Amino acid sequence: MSIAPILFSTLAALVVVLAAFAVFGRRHFASVIGFVAFGLLLALVWMILSAPDVALTEAAVGGGVTGALLLCACARWREIQGVPQPPIVLRIAAAGLCAAVTVGLIIVVLSLPSPPPTLATTAWDSLDVTGMGNAVTAVLMAFRALDTMLEKVVLLLALIAVWSFGRDCVWGGRPDLMFLPQKNGPLTFLAKILIPVGVLAGIYLFWVGADKPGGAFAGGALIAAMGLLAIFSGLIRPPSIENLRLRWALVLGILVFLGVGFLGFAMVGDFLAYPSALAKPIIVVIEIAMTLSIAFTLFMLVVGPAEKKP
Amino acid sequence: MMTVVMAIFTIIMVSLGALFFFAGTVGLLRFPDTLSRLHALTKADNLGLGLIILGLLPQIDWPFGALKLGLVWVLILVAGSAASQIVGRKVYEEDKS
User: What does the mean pLDDT of chain A come to?
Assistant: First the structure.
């Protein structure tokens, strides 16, 4: 008898237990720690399901950056103790919307035909056209490039939504963390060692994404995490949200994507179409811009809206 | 013959490493206060991880796979010791006040 089924079912049970712990935990901080562990175990599950690209992104975004985002939210939560809660109607509406999304997802998953329709073999057979060795990157950057571009737009819209929560009088100022950075302690020591290695690993993840598991999102998230480490350890201050270089970095990915998209009309005669011979260099250029933009957007999402006057 | 020896080496080392992880976890669950829990966790896990990495070295491609594995070991050591220092300092400061 093989030991694998026992290991896998234990892992699946642990994932469910951690999810329940994160949702029903009485203390916010403990819930967030549960959520981070949940993200890491989920990455392991994706690995077992032979989806290493998803696993990397889940570990970097689900466990890492979202965990940092929620921890910052915990710190803010303490600040707003005593502020009256939103009216019960609003809360019921929010709960209703969440439930509707969950029920909708359940219905969609249950009504899938078996076996589900797939374009995987078509994508796999046309891999040569893109010059990529990793089918996931080929789908993201060539076959379904429009989706990937719109995903970047959504990410930017999310950041604008976060910024709009800042008070009017501090618009254009610096974001402020709700806790003091731990200067000159063990965290600073860790940051000084880890940041160069982490940024290098992020660039490697994006670069290797063409042929192996990796890609712009996982790489960008890792670089964003290194920026957050630099903030938490007091090595740098968050940039002002009116900083022009920051704003260029935020939109660079979308701009390059759009530029290449319109160039497609001139070169091949369609939006976001690449000539096959140039597909690989074009994709690499888009991915460089995207990695940069993803890193800065995720980073600014976590540090939050402006809090201090410019 | 050589692969069998390597496999036995891997099995012994990884099992020993898992044993240390187990002991560290028992300490984490059973010890009475934060500092001694930290003590159990860091010592046992650092040694356990070292043994597991050592055990996996013969199974991975040389030299880059082995170098990556070594890097993982060093990074976890640094991150683990920094995190336990932070927790330890926090406990110390709270005890003082």
Answer: 88
